[in-house]
Structure formats: C-alpha cells, structure tokens
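Hey, I was hoping to borrow your eyes for a little while. I'm sending you its amino acid sequence along with the backbone structure tokens. Take your time with it, there's no hurry, and the full record follows here.
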Amino acid sequence: MDIATELSSLHQPLLRFAQLQLRHDSLAEDVVSETLLAILETPERFEGRSSLKTYATGILKFKIIDVLRRRGREIHVEPLAEQSVDDALDALFAADGHWREAPPAWQHPERALEQAQFFDTLQLCIDNLPPKLARIFMMREWLELEIDGICGELQITSNNCSVMLYRARMQLRECLQLRWFEDAA
C-alpha cells in the first residue's frame, strides 16, 4: 500500500480527534488537511519507526495546539451538570474516599498496551465519555498540555479541571474493565 492510500484511510480517525479538540468542523478539517499535506509533501521524513497513524497523529497534535493557541480564549465549557457521573462515583467510593470494593487486578496490563485491539477499545471508551470530559482528557493525555494551559484555554479553574480529569479517568477505567480486561480474563 502506498503512503497516499494509507493516509486516505487515516482521514476519518484524524478528523474525529481534531473535531473533539477544536469543536469546529471546518477548523478540524483544515488541520487534518494540513497534516496530510505535510506528510505527502515530505514523505521521506516518515522513517517508519512508528506506524503511519502514530506519525500523523503526532503532527496533527502540534497543529491542533497551534490552532488552540491562536484562538485564544474563544472556547467555553459550561459547568458540569452530569449527575449520573456523581452517582457513579458515589457507587464506587465510600464517604471516607476509599473504594467500596477494591478494583480487580488487571492481568499483565503491559501486554495489553502492545495490542492494537486494546487501543481500539480505548478509543471506543474515549468516544463514549461525555464530550467535555473526553476533550479535557485528550488535551491532557494526548496533547500533553499542562493543567494551567487547559484551564486558560477552557476558562476553568484548576480544581474543576482536576475533578473533570479524575472523572474521565474513572469512567475510562470502568469502561476498560468491562470491555477489555474482563473479556481478557
């Protein structure tokens, strides 16, 4: 498969990632197009040390960060009103903050990271997060933005950001437990 054909198959996943971060369809399409064009213009820069998808996502990540910096403070996130998330957390933790029931041990989590199917499941879990939580999680974990940068971009407090990251991680943990680790056991 040549690089152009392989890149065309990456358009949709890259676009979905960009839309999640930018919340603007035409801007997302622009950064994805710029990413694909950059790769096509200098294919020799792709050395094959990673998958083409990983390479393209890395380029896209920096293009998204550039757009977020240029846009300044245009993005607004409404306060959390997800009562169901609070209920889920209450079901997991006792009043003293300890687990009601210890989470089961995951068998060989390092092996799961080596499996492409794991990342498909992780993406499905991220796609099922509430949009606000998914966006903040992706900004922190995929774009590797600092909490202060996320707070400035979304005009939220660091405490609110930390709570939202915690909720996202807990929901991802639960989703992975159900969709991956219990199936693997």
About this structure: The radius of gyration is 18 Å. The longest helix spans residues 158-184. The chain has two domains: 3-71, 83-184.
